[in-house]
């Protein structure tokens, strides 16, 4: 389980870097759809960040660094 979560964590981090890079590249563009695209990329970045945080918490529970319950 720990290996699966670590792999998922790294994949999610790469996805986050890709979305962030696309957002930064979009800032340099100056077409009429730039604002709409920027908004969509921001929403996607927030979603991917949430997934990364959930995987990180699950990994912490699996390893034993975070204790839930009594």
UniProtKB/TrEMBL annotation:
The keyword RNA-binding does not apply. Keywords: Membrane, Transmembrane, Transmembrane helix. The chain crosses the membrane at residues 6-25, 46-66. It comes from the Bacteria. Residues 1-70 form the HIG1 domain. Pfam families: HIG_1_N (PF04588). This is Twin transmembrane helix small protein. It comes from Hyphomonas atlantica. The lineage of its organism: Bacteria, Pseudomonadati, Pseudomonadota, Alphaproteobacteria, Hyphomonadales.
């Amino acid at each position: 389980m720990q290996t699966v979560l670590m792999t998922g964590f790294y994949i999610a981090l790469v996805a986050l870097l890709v979305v962030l890079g696309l957002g930064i590249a979009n800032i340099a563009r100056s077409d009429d759809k730039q604002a709409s695209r920027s908004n969509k990329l921001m929403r996607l970045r927030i979603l991917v960040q949430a997934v990364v945080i959930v995987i990180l918490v699950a990994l912490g529970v699996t390893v034993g660094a975070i204790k839930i319950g009594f």
